[in-house]
Design goal:
The protein has one domain (25-139): Flavocytochrome C3, Chain A, domain 2, CATH 1.10.1130. The chain is built from 9 helices and no strands. It has helices at 2-22, 29-32, 37-44, 63-69, 82-86, 95-99, 101-106, 114-121, 133-139. It is mainly α. The chain is 48% helix and 0% strand.
Length: 149
């Protein structure tokens, strides 16, 4: 009987793991950096990268704060990292996927729009600076504008 229960338990764990293996997960900006060096270097200089640091220590574990100040509501992924706007990165298992737009989209790549930005910029439980999507888009979210020399 004990062996039968052990087998059933292992079967349940195995079957339960099948569905979760396909669920997308966050991998963190350091993984995105491997292929997207320019975007990562620019992102590091922008306020999104430092969003978690703007929280007070007592806010750094509050779900309502992590929603916008950490990626995936996870303090282990501080700041508004790539996946906060582009979706979980676990589906990009090969460079071939990212080089093929259809494969990247099928793997879960999201293309942020105004609603993506407004999730935090207009729905925060605290005062945030005014947000103009068209202006932000025209300035390029991945680019820190260089002053003409």
């Amino acid at each position: 009987m004990k062996a039968r229960l052990t087998f059933v338990g292992l079967l349940v764990l195995t079957i339960g793991g099948i569905g979760s293996a396909d669920e997308p997960t966050y991998v963190g900006a350091s993984k995105c950096k491997i292929c997207h060096k320019v975007e990562y270097a620019s992102w590091e200089t922008l306020p999104h990268a430092k969003a978690f640091d703007r929280l007070k220590p007592e806010e750094q574990s509050k779900a309502e704060c992590l929603t916008c100040h950490a990626t995936g509501n996870n303090a282990e992924l501080p700041g508004v990292q790539c996946e906060a706007c582009h979706g979980e990165g676990s589906g990009y298992k090969s460079i071939k996927i990212m080089k093929d737009p259809d494969a990247a989209n099928a793997a879960g790549l999201l293309h942020p729009d105004e609603a993506t930005c407004k999730r935090c910029h207009e729905n925060a439980p605290h005062e945030v600076p005014p947000f103009d999507f068209e202006k932000a888009k025209s300035q390029g979210i991945h680019e820190k504008k260089q002053k003409p020399s």
